[in-house]
Amino acid sequence: MGDTDPVELPINGILDLHTFHPRDVKELVPHYLETCQIKGITSVRIIHGKGIGTLREIVHGLLRKNPEVLGFRLGDETCGGWGATLVTLRPKGVK
Prior knowledge:
27% helix; 4 strands; 95 residues
């Protein structure tokens, strides 16, 4: 497999960014959220890791700009702590 081969993601409301290159996140996150929304998934957990916070800030910036995102917050101790972000999406077709 080459670097340009597409990766099949399970659409289950959990997106783990550890396996992706940071340059792909700006395209990946909005596409994943849109696909979740189409499938009726309105609660999404994005795992970005704790690290120094760069990836978390990229993800949060994308979420702030997305009109389909009703809200988001860092996870608590049961769902990844500050290494994950919980997202609430607008149900598809609801404005």
